[in-house]
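Consider one such protein record:
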Amino acid sequence: FKKPLKEVTTIANSLALDCPISQTVSQLSGGQRQRTAVGRAIYQKMPIFIGDEPFSALDPVMGKRLINLVLQQHKSVIMVLHDMDMALQHFDRVIGLRDGKKCIDTRASELSAEMLQAFYEGSSIDTDEAIGSDTIA
């Protein structure tokens, strides 16, 4: 029991959880709950992390800290984000969906600011340009 407790404590400290690890999740703030969920994923040591806006209740500094931690701990990361800068800075590939249809599927390095802006505004975009030649099947 001591080894898992030590590991959980180390993870909690890396997530800056400023509460006792014995505290129940129902007593935590939204940001603390999100950090706890990330901590659980890190503790499980799975090769793939899948997250739906896992940093939305966190301030930008903590969000950047945690995304780096997630990227270090997992071989593959699939994440829903509405933060364009975070997506472009930390991910190799960006896939954009609108009304259940894939509108963007390209390397982040090939994605222009104009394409992203048009996508977020709901404008039509050049799908040949937005859906690159090496799309995921």
Q: What stands out?
A: The chain has two domains: 1-81, 92-137. Strands lie at 48-52, 76-80, 93-98, 101-107. The CA atoms of residues 10 and 73 lie 14 Å apart. The longest strand covers residues 101-107.
